[in-house]
Amino acid sequence: MPSWFTSAWLYVECYMYRRVQEAMALCPPLNDHDVFSELKQKSFFDSQKAIISLCDHLGEVLNKISGLNKDEVKKEFQQLLQVCLWGNKCDLSISAGKDNPQKASPLTGLNDLKAKILIDDTEAVWATLEDKLKKNPSSTQCFRLDIVLDNAGFELFTDLVLAEFLLASKLVDQIHFHGKCMPWFISDVTKEDVNFTVHLLMASNHRWSSKLGATWRSHLQDGSWVYHDHMFWTFPHEYCSMEAIAPDLYAELKRSNLILFKGDLNYRKLTGDRQWDHTTAFETALQGFHPSALCSLRALKADLQVGLQPGMAEILTAADPDWMVSGEYAVIQFSDAKQ
Ligand SMILES: O=P(O)(O)OC[C@H]1O[C@](O)(CO)[C@@H](O)[C@@H]1O
């Protein structure tokens, strides 16, 4: 399939969601209604067991966080980064709107899933975070993390859990979240989804859930968490054109020390949705997009992947012809260098 075809398909997908939004805007009583909100909320409710077990885990970590040594903090970071990565499996657009909740505890299966992480640059992400501590432990200089969100429901919850851990462990000082300004790819996060998640947790009768909900509301109020929803994220453009098309957003991202891009669609836009050779360097596929150090956390759901070792794609294809689209494999792919 030529590369123009996959890019054209991305335009069609983006156009479709814009038309849904347009239809709603033309029906005044419904113009604020998110047609996908019921599905998103159901996926959150259906993941309750996993959410509660993760709340309990995070609660225990927060209780002892000031006494953890560096290795313990690193181990916890690795674990929660993987939870956040696999949260991207719970996507309503890959399941065509059908239920795709997280039923089991997200922590128990992590070891078995390690072999499915085709590229794991966790060490480079950790080094970026650690750099701040090493350089100047008592520095008042702010380390800013940005998270370009993907799906609401369980995935958003895992993003907020990682964000809480990074803030509480003082690895980062401020977190900026980027969501969508309109209902998008069925389950993508809007501001209403963030508010829904925080309010529902606050109202829970489970101790740690309500405590975390209240903490997250105060982070959003005191500015340690900031939510943005620039229109660019709902345009079909590849990210290498962001600087020209949305210079204000590019300038905002340049203020970040590290940007996490969640999910498959962000990966497609980072790499221009081209059919790159699988061994192409990530930096090459980014085509000059480099507002800051960045990392993609992505379960593979579309037919592209760069940065693999020679021969790896062939081995994967022989073992599982659907490896690029099944959502069973994932990458934690980091780039710090400008090409
Ligand atoms: O929610 P994610 O991880 O961005 O996945 C979205 C992906 O799902 C699909 O809509 C269907 O698999 C892809 O076209 C798209 O890239």
UniProtKB/TrEMBL annotation:
<dbReference type="GO" id="GO:0046872">
    <property type="term" value="F:metal ion binding"/>
</dbReference>
<keyword id="KW-0378">Hydrolase</keyword>
<keyword id="KW-0812">Transmembrane</keyword>
<dbReference type="GO" id="GO:0051998">
    <property type="term" value="F:protein carboxyl O-methyltransferase activity"/>
</dbReference>
<dbReference type="GO" id="GO:0005634">
    <property type="term" value="C:nucleus"/>
</dbReference>
<keyword id="KW-0479">Metal-binding</keyword>
<feature type="domain" description="Damage-control phosphatase ARMT1-like metal-binding">
    <location>
        <begin position="1"/>
        <end position="314"/>
    </location>
</feature>
<keyword id="KW-0949">S-adenosyl-L-methionine</keyword>
<keyword id="KW-0533">Nickel</keyword>
<comment type="similarity">
    <text>Belongs to the damage-control phosphatase family. Sugar phosphate phosphatase III subfamily.</text>
</comment>
<dbReference type="GO" id="GO:0016791">
    <property type="term" value="F:phosphatase activity"/>
</dbReference>
<keyword id="KW-0489">Methyltransferase</keyword>
<keyword id="KW-0808">Transferase</keyword>
<keyword id="KW-0464">Manganese</keyword>
<dbReference type="GO" id="GO:0032259">
    <property type="term" value="P:methylation"/>
</dbReference>
<keyword id="KW-0472">Membrane</keyword>
<dbReference type="GO" id="GO:0006974">
    <property type="term" value="P:DNA damage response"/>
</dbReference>
<keyword id="KW-1133">Transmembrane helix</keyword>
<comment type="function">
    <text>Metal-dependent phosphatase that shows phosphatase activity against several substrates, including fructose-1-phosphate and fructose-6-phosphate. Its preference for fructose-1-phosphate, a strong glycating agent that causes DNA damage rather than a canonical yeast metabolite, suggests a damage-control function in hexose phosphate metabolism. Has also been shown to have O-methyltransferase activity that methylates glutamate residues of target proteins to form gamma-glutamyl methyl ester residues. Possibly methylates PCNA, suggesting it is involved in the DNA damage response.</text>
</comment>
<protein>
    <recommendedName>
        <fullName>Sugar phosphate phosphatase</fullName>
        <ecNumber>2.1.1.-</ecNumber>
        <ecNumber>3.1.3.-</ecNumber>
    </recommendedName>
</protein>
